[in-house]
Amino acid sequence: MRRMWLAVMLVSVGCADEIPEDVSAHMEAARTANQAVADSVAAPDIAALIAGAPAGGHADWVRDIRTGLDTVAASAGVDRGEALYTVQELYSRRYDPLRQFYGTDGAAGPGQQLAQAVERAGMQLRELMRHLAGDASDGDVIEANVRAVQDALDQIESASQAAGLPPTAPRDVITTGS
Asked: Of 123, 57, 53, 129, which Cα lies nearest the Cα of 89?
């Protein structure tokens, strides 16, 4: 034990001259640098988002969500797990690109109306998943949740038309700059 204590003392004495004399100044400089990085918001890499997005544009993604939801209420009565999996896939593969481009702080710079519609659809999809994951929800609750998601998708379509987005956006609009 004494040998270990002696080794620790020798190491700390040997390293003592490597410790900066004014540690607080270095810590303050590091804090300032970290704050500057935290305060700057990097714009998303549009090219990477488009490359990772599914084929088509936002209108195709909304249509795919609608088509997938058509079977959820019926399949929930037979296999709730399969219905939940379907909604999770729709959320991750179709809704997420909508959110990344048109949700709040979306890469495509959506208007407030479109961003709110996209966020509402996400909220409704999450609510549907919550009900599908629980055992207490009956078929009527699931059907009401599916209708709520469909209504939210209607709002996305209306808001995107009001914003003048072509159905192929964001792909064509962002890559051509129109």
From this structure: 129
